[in-house]
């Protein structure tokens, strides 16, 4: 699932290679007050219906006079925030927004180019899913070392005190992976933007169609910093300290033991044809099928038609239908550890905050010669 456009070359060089097929004059949405405006806080919802100058002033005053609209008071019980909440809090000093867009190779989309030239949420930083990764393995975008993550995130200008909202260009896709990464390294004040950039734009909120030089430099610095770490060089200064949470990430050996011990229910987020072994894997040399004993819940089943996370009751139905008990531990996997995090996101909404993701996922498991594989065909 790794994109060749986001391989191990320096980000600064990649930022200047634009596709001629990309639109040069993207639509900028700015119709803020001709619709219902909803602001979310931890313990209540306030709705403003605005039309005309009088209502516009009322809505503006309501936003500016909010007293507890900060990420310090936002609950981490729910893993997502709405686009309306983000719009109301976009200028908060303790909030940083990350564009973590990443696409499958066959989609032929370059997230860096789209971030810089097409559209991103104002002030958002670019988080390179492929770049901020382990350099010692051929497996795609594997979790980096603690030091590597710390220097890359510090280079982006992120501090431990910051609240983070992560989004992507599809709705909820790769953003969930970055949400999980921060949690693995001990940062819980992180949320996924529900519906992502598509929901932001359809709600009439402004986007930026060019990246500032500061944002470009930070993205490039993050890539260079993690490269230095893996070359044994010093990179710094550090503004972000990690605290590794090993229970949130599983290895191949742990998954292998779980086949016999069955401590965790294993859910695979890939499509049913890939899980069944009826469809070939997109990567060469990878066997088709699934880990024995695992069950299939394709990640789109966590989302509605607008790519927002389903309500808790709907999510419960999805898991119940596949025989998953929410009273027992759960493990998730997928192709390369990206969409497995969407299952973890849905389970987090249901109160299961300790769900591990098998980082190597099927790309690692299916490539090994001695790992057992089941098929349903």
TrEMBL record:
Annotated Basic and acidic residues bias: 263-275
Alphabetical keyword list: Repeat, Transferase
Domain of life: Eukaryota
Domain Rhodanese residue range list: 91-209, 260-374
Gene3D superfamilies xref list: Rhodanese-like domain
Disordered: annotated span: 263-292
InterPro entries to which the protein is assigned, alphabetical: Rhodanese-like_dom, Rhodanese-like_dom_sf, Thiosulphate_STrfase_CS, TST/MPST-like
Protein name, entry field: Sulfurtransferase
Lineage: Eukaryota, Viridiplantae, Streptophyta, Embryophyta, Tracheophyta
């Amino acid at each position: 699932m790794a994109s060749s456009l986001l391989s191990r070359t320096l980000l600064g060089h990649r930022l200047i290679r634009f596709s001629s097929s990309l639109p040069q004059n993207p639509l900028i949405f700015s119709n803020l007050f001709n619709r219902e405006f909803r602001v979310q806080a931890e313990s209540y919802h306030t709705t403003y219906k605005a039309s005309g100058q009088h209502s516009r002033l009322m809505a503006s005053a309501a936003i500016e006079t909010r007293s507890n609209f900060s990420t310090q008071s936002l609950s981490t019980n729910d893993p997502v925030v709405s686009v309306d909440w983000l719009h109301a809090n976009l200028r908060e000093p303790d909030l940083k927004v990350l564009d973590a867009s990443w696409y499958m190779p066959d989609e032929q989309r370059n997230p860096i180019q789209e971030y810089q030239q097409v559209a991103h949420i104002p002030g958002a930083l670019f988080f390179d899913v492929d770049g901020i990764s382990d350099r010692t393995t051929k497996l795609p975008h594997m979790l980096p070392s603690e030091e590597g993550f710390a220097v890359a995130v510090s280079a982006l200008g992120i501090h431990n005190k910051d609240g983070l909202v992560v989004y992507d260009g599809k709705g909820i896709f790769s953003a969930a992976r970055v949400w999980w990464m921060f949690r693995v390294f001990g940062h819980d004040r992180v949320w996924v933007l529900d519906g992502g950039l598509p929901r932001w734009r359809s709600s009439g909120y402004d986007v930026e169609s060019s990246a500032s030089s500061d944002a470009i430099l930070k993205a490039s610095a993050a890539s260079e910093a993690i490269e230095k770490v893996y070359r044994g060089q010093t990179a710094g200064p550090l503004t972000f300290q990690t605290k590794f949470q090993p229970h949130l990430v599983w290895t191949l050996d742990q998954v292998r033991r779980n086949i016999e011990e069955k401590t965790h229910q294993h859910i695979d987020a890939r499509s049913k044809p890939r899980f069944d072994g009826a469809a070939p894997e997109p990567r060469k040399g990878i066997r088709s099928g699934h880990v024995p004993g695992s069950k299939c819940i394709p990640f789109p089943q966590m989302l509605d038609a607008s790519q927002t996370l389903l309500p808790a009751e709907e999510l419960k139905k999805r898991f119940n239908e596949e025989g998953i008990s929410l009273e027992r531990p759960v493990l998730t996997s997928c192709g390369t550890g990206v969409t497995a995090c969407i299952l973890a996101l849905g389970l987090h909404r249901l109160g299961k905050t300790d769900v591990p993701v098998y980082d190597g996922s099927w790309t690692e498991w299916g490539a090994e010669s001695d790992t057992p594989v089941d098929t349903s065909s």
